[in-house]
Amino acid sequence: MTEAVPPRGVPLVVQPGIRRIVAPNPGPMTYHGTNTWLVDWAGGTVAIDPGSEDERHLAAILREAAGRLTHILVTHTHRDHLDGAQTLARRSGARTAGYRISGDASFAPAIRLDDGESIGGLTTLYTPGHAMDHLCFAHPQGILFSGDHVMGWSTSVVPPPPHGDLDLFIASLQRVRDRGDRLMLSAHGAAIDDPAGLVAALLEHRFAREASIAGTLDAAARSLETLLARAYVSLKPELLGAARANLLSHLIRLERHGRAVHTEAGWSLPP
Ligand SMILES: [Zn+2]
Fold first, then answer.
1. Which CATH class is domain 12-193?
2. Where in the chain is the domain with CATH 3.60.15.10?
3. Interval between CA 110 and ligand 1 midpoint (Å)
4. 219 Cα to the center of ligand 1, angstroms
5. 151 C-alpha vs ligand 1 centroid, how far in Å?
6. pLDDT tens for residues 93-152?
7. Rg of the chain over CA atoms, in angstroms?
8. Do strands 261-263 and 266-268 pair parallel, antiparallel, or not at all (unpaired)?
9. What's the CA-to-centroid distance between 268 and ligand 1, angstroms?
């Protein structure tokens, strides 16, 4: 799914009470930039993923929240989601909230969340995989704020343990697919108006990818770099790191399921 470059620093209204402000941090891993979601509830307004530490972006959030900001929710602690959180909390008086075990040693959320909790009119869903501290936030009107778990522009990078986990990621995808939400609003890219269809396609893509990676293995032990070249032909250099992480996650999953063997010499098919 592609989207025209959205304006930054201004609210883009999805429906009354829900608007998006795009942070000025575009890149190969962030698309047009991080979506900061402002969501009104009975007690005020929450900001989901404050995005980058950028003066204009933070000023736009504060202006749009108009003194009613109650919580700053972090879907996970990757820098493009987290960076503005502390400054925004200091300036607004709102409390930060994120998964109870932070993946970033420099960030401890003021409110530590677990699965199935209520905060700011939303309900938390613990969705580990892309990050081990990833939360989605469910809005009562059939809308899921999906962070980097399901995105509107690309598949998610799933790093190998301890930072991510492909088996958990797949289980987390199946969980959100089966919820029946009518809309997903992710941290990068446009709104997703067929969540179940997109998640089904993402799962299919993962399983196809897994089959092709399994197909690169043979009886001899191969290095990760050899398998990378076999699995990902004509890859842009800026995406190499992400591809390597995804590949290793797939190999670890194949090994767990008895379909690959790992020794010091590399990866091979089981004997
Ligand atoms: Zn992320």
1. alpha beta
2. 12-193
3. 20
4. 35
5. 10
6. 999 999 999 999 999 999 999 999 999 999 999 999 999 999 999 999 999 999 999 998
7. 19
8. antiparallel
9. 30
